[in-house]
Amino acid sequence: MVVVGAVASLATLRMASPVRAAVGPGTVEVGAASVVDGSTTVALPPLGRIVASTHRAPVRLGGRLDELDVERLQVLLSAPRAQERITEDVQADLPDLLRRFVLRSLAAALLVGGVAGALVPRRRLVHAGLGAAGGLAGVGLVLVWTWQGYDTGAFEEARFEGALERAPAILEAAQRSVGDLDRVSGLVQTLSGQVAGLYAATDLGGATGETLILHVSDIHSNPLGVELVEQLADSFDVDAVLDTGDLTSYGSPVESRISRLIEDIDVPYLFVPGNHDSEENRATFAASTGITVLDGDQARVGSVRILGVGDPTFTADNRVSTAAANERKEQLAPRVLAAVRRDEPDLLAVHDLRQAADVAGQVPVVVGGHTHARSSRSEDGTTFLTVGSTGATGLGSFLVETALPYEAEILRFDGRRLAAVDYVTLVGVSGDFTIERQVVVDPDAEDEDQDEDAGDADGGTATEADGVGG
């Protein structure tokens, strides 16, 4: 009976053991299951999990972060000694959770062992007692074995699964982040000075009284991208920043903390949400003192009227396929056209140009992002522009070794008309950068050389390009 109780209790350990409780700024679930090789698994949805061979006992321990109190975490992170405070909170809460886990496992073992003993042929009360004792002894011995042989050092050789496979490299890059931010700042300042000289030498300087709008997109939670935006905004003395979406990557609430960096930018920051920006993060950005969210709304920068229409889809959690999202945008394109006809903006800002499929000939300029690639075309008097990723596609390029470029463009308006576009490309933090000016031809202006100009880029623009190495 003792053996029967022990086997039954160990077999049902998975179902009996899970315990949830608040630990620090989050809610954690702890459980166990009988396996051949002992290990500990720490799950961090949706990023993946960490697996370490921490003990020899035939049981797998599991911990799972189920919820995160973002407001409490933000308070802790903003306080002095943030890391120490969080550690203290976790250390205070964790022992109680582990005690509850052990007591629940032992109580379940007692119950399951007793039931198993009572169900054997020729049932007697003593069988139930022996089964309960066997269950208690079996689970108790396994827990003691696990505790005595537990090796926390095994996490130094842990296996990462899911998105966390990149965690070691990302953490290593994060340790270098402060120095990299300083390097980016210096590089952009150097770029600005050389560009000023370039303009003076080539007569590319701006006209007096023009309105400058810095167009950025697809930062994808990369703080270096925000640093680049701040430096460009300051160096080129722009009147506003226009961000056409995907400020975040996963849509997780903790990513919204990037808004704190944006609050340091001294000019208005207009934000048009993208398909990686969740509803929760959109609301957080709207509440930020440094960001103005445009989603069906208008803003005015100088004399330029801007209509922003956010992406109607959220695809970061993979619940909506790319094909379904694209179809949704195309279905809603007539609504965007109706908004353009109603508000008569000088500039329409969307995340994905699919949203603006019907507006050719109805608005002078349309800008977007989404594709992580630069494009420029003219159709029926409307100039369509996309900018590459200002975050170099985000966290993946936080690893300095990558050669993906950070991209942005400065829209230069003469009154309400787009006169020129300055396209800036910075490759990693290597210092290689280029700036290219695209002069936009006024379709209403009389030009004796119209036939010759029609041979320039995109049928409606003339381009002057210069590269500057830094």
Write up this protein:
It is built from 12 helices and 20 strands. With 470 residues, the chain is α/β, with parallel strands linked by helices. It has an 8-stranded mixed beta sheet, with helices on one face. Strands 1-2-5-3-4-6 form a 6-stranded mixed beta sheet. The chain has a 6-stranded mixed beta sheet with strand order 11-12-13-14-16-15, covered by helices on one side. The protein starts with a helix and ends with a strand. 39% of the residues are buried. The model is unreliable at 4-10, 169-179, 200-204, 396-402 and 453-470 (pLDDT under 50).
Observed structural traits:
single chain, 470 residues, alpha/beta, Purple Acid Phosphatase, chain A, domain 2, 2 domains, 8-stranded mixed beta sheet, 6-stranded mixed beta sheet, 20 strands, 37% helix, elongated, disordered C terminus, metal-binding, Calcineurin-like_PHP, membrane
